[in-house]
């Protein structure tokens, strides 16, 4: 299904349990350091939980006996322990941050590596902003959740358990009076957490919609301003932002209930403690020092629980983000390299389609081509023409195996491309698209993109194409940054043409390669293409029929097959033929404009 920012994404297929397990697997890669952090948490918790015992001693022993020296020793000992606890916490937090950064690095590289292996259909069916959101924003949430697990969740749970143990050691009856509220806290929290996850998942979808919109709108800023659609675009932005805000507020409202439950539990805990303390003081089984120590322990008991409450929103939100990262890691390409793939060897460049049928994965009931068969001899130039949507680009994309046919075979020099390795196939087949993409970096880096060649070889190719003057006119020649070169769309097309020539493919695919250039640049591109296509099997998709008159053969694509094929003169000789009708209609339109 084709996605867009106006419709929410489907819920993640990765469950909370699976998400947590996979996060723990990443953490397990650093199990030695995590174990050390846990040890520090245990030591720190032990140190902190001992401090209230000094309160009991100070009241029941030192103050009761008027022992000033003993009181000073008790206070100093408690202070030293508090300092030790603080130092351990700092060391633990620093180690946690390093682990979290390494986890997000691994997760991001794993996700990006998988994205690179996905077919064009994956990118065609999704707004790029949604993919960017998962790689950038959602992966960052993995860092937060790793920090939460190692520096907050685990230490707080350890601390909570140790406080409970110390309370039981100090006075089991007072301890149980405090613990009586735990079942109420657990039951109510359970229902809040279950519902809260779906709310945070909905918020992430709304945030993803907004990111997709911003990316799409930025890419299309020219038509937005050209058509004066700023107000309309702003209104859409405002609507999406309100959806994000409403999603956030709904999720937070549910999470705030958690805080209310905790505060109520704390209040009830104090009530039970004081009621029991008054009763047992009358019985003489509880001292004032014990009560003061328990008041300290109750504060320590609820401290980690309060911390967990503050972590709740973050953890649930981050779990939904992490699930989205793992979901994209689990995306599988439907175009797979054969287990016994061989390096395809292309000498002649013969291309043959045998009964090829193709439909897009998201619309399998609609075939774009059916039982398509043709053969092209090496060195020939074949032009594909026909109405928009007829399947011209689909055919050439299958040659490069950007898409796989549903049925049939595609052979290059008699070798089935499904059994060839991707690297060897993509080295033999180069595609030059309509929109030339130059990457950040220098002109030299773009010319050598994906290939390792000597500078002398590159410069020879540039001279052969007649582009030396263009490169020399740039501020730093080959080392000019693309962003500083001020290249026109036509000049970018020429650089892309040179890059393709340096790649030295055996089979060349040109998809509307001259559609976005002016007449003068087009002549330069056509001259370069003539040089580039010499001795190579070439497929050209073109709407301007004047550019393909000299093709060895022209395929007229339509009705899910090749309706007509032949040279320009042969096709023009067919009375009422599809090509002749297209050609005459196009030139009639030119005459009308003139």
SSE topology:
Blueprint: H1 16-28, H2 31-63, H3 68-116, H4 120-124, H5 128-170, H6 172-179, H7 182-219, H8 221-226, H9 230-283, H10 288-329, E1 351-359, E2 367-376, E3 381-385, H11 392-399, E4 407-412, E5 415-416, H12 422-428, E6 429-432, H13 443-447, H14 455-465, H15 468-472, H16 482-485, H17 489-503, E7 507-511, H18 519-533, E8 537-541, E9 553-558, E10 561-566, H19 568-572, H20 578-593
Parallel strand pairs: 3-8, 3-9, 6-7, 7-8
Antiparallel strand pairs: 1-2, 1-4, 4-5, 9-10
Description:
It is a single chain. The protein is of the alpha/beta class and 594 residues long. Helix content is 64%, strand content 10%. It has helices at residues 16-28, 31-63, 68-116, 120-124, 128-170, 172-179, 182-219, 221-226, 230-283, 288-329, 392-399, 422-428, 443-447, 455-465, 468-472, 482-485, 489-503, 519-533, 568-572, 578-593, and strands spanning 351-359, 367-376, 381-385, 407-412, 415-416, 429-432, 507-511, 537-541, 553-558, 561-566. Strands 6-7-8-3-9-10 form a six-stranded mixed beta sheet, with helices on both faces. It has a four-stranded antiparallel beta sheet with strand order 2-1-4-5, with helices on one face. Strand 9 (553-558) and strand 10 (561-566) form a beta hairpin. Helix 2 (31-63) packs parallel to helix 5, helix 5 (128-170) packs antiparallel against helix 6 and helix 5 (128-170) runs antiparallel to helix 7.
Q: How is the largest sheet built, in terms of strand order?
A: 6-7-8-3-9-10
What is the average per-residue confidence, as pLDDT, rounded to a whole number? 79
Beta content comes to 5-15%
How many H/I helical runs? Answer: 20
Computed Rg: 35 Å
Structural class of the helices, strands and pairings? alpha/beta
H-E order: HHHHHHHHHHEEEHEEHEHHHHHEHEEEHH
- Low-confidence segments: 589-594
Span between termini: 44 Å
Helix proportion range: 55-70%
The gross shape turns out to be: elongated
Please count the beta strands (DSSP E, at least 2 residues each): 10
Largest sheet: 6 strands, mixed
């Amino acid at each position: 299904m084709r996605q867009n920012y106006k419709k929410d994404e489907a819920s993640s297929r990765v469950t909370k349990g699976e998400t947590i397990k996979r996060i723990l697997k990443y953490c397990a890669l650093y199990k030695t350091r995590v174990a050390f952090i846990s040890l520090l948490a245990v030591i720190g918790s032990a140190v902190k939980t001992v401090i209230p015992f000094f309160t009991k001693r100070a009241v029941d022993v030192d103050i009761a006996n008027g022992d000033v020296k003993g009181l000073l020793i008790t206070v100093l000992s408690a202070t030293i322990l508090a300092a030790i606890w603080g130092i351990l916490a700092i060391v633990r937090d620093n180690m946690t941050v390093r682990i979290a950064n390494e986890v997000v690095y691994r997760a991001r590289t794993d996700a990006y590596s998988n994205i690179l292996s996905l077919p064009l259909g994956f990118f065609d069916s999704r707004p790029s902003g949604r993919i960017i959101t998962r790689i950038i924003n959602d992966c960052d949430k993995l860092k937060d959740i790793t920090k939460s697990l190692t520096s907050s969740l685990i230490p707080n749970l350890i601390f909570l358990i140790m406080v409970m143990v110390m309370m039981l050691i100090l006075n089991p009856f007072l301890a149980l009076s405090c613990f009586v509220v735990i079942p109420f806290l657990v039951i109510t929290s359970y229902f809040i957490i279950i519902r809260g996850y779906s709310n945070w998942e909905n918020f992430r979808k709304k945030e993803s919609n907004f990111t997709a919109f911003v990316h799409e709108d930025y890419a299309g800023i020219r038509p937005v301003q050209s058509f004066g659609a700023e107000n309309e675009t702003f209104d859409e932005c405002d609507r999406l932002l309100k959806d994000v805000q409403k999603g956030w507020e709904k999720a937070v409202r549910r999470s705030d209930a958690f805080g209310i439950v905790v505060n109520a539990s704390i209040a009830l805990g104090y009530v039970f403690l004081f009621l029991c303390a008054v009763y047992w003081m009358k019985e003489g089984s509880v001292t004032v020092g014990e009560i003061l120590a328990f008041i300290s322990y109750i504060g320590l008991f609820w401290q980690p629980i309060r911390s967990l409450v503050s972590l709740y929103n973050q953890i649930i939100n981050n779990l939904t983000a992490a699930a989205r990262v793992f979901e994209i890691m689990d995306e599988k390409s439907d175009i797979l390299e054969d287990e016994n793939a061989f390096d395809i060897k292309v000498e002649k460049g013969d291309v043959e389609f045998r009964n090829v049928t193709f439909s897009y994965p998201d619309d399998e009931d609609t075939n774009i081509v059916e039982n398509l068969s043709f053969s092209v001899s090496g060195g020939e130039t074949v032009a594909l023409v026909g109405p928009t949507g007829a399947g011209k680009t689909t055919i050439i994309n299958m040659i490069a195996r950007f898409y796989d046919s549903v049925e049939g075979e595609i052979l290059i020099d008699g070798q089935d491309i499904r059994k060839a390795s991707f690297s060897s196939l993509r080295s033999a087949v180069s595609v030059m698209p309509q929109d030339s993409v130059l990457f950040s970096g220098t002109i030299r880096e773009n010319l050598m993109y994906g290939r390792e060649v000597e500078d002398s070889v590159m410069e020879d190719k540039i001279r052969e194409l007649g582009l030396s003057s263009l490169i020399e006119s740039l501020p730093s020649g080959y080392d000019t940054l693309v962003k500083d070169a001020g290249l026109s769309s036509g000049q970018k097309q020429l650089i892309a043409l040179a890059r393709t020539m340096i790649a030295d493919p055996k089979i060349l695919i040109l998809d509307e390669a001259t559609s976005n250039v002016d007449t003068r640049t087009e002549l330069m591109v056509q001259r370069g293409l003539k040089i580039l296509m010499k001795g190579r099997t070439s497929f050209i998709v073109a709407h301007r029929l004047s550019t393909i008159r000299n093709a060895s053969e022209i395929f007229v694509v339509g009705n899910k097959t090749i309706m007509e094929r032949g040279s320009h003169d042969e096709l023009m000789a067919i009375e009422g033929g599809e090509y002749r009708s297209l050609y005459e209609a196009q030139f009639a339109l030119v005459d009308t404009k003139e």
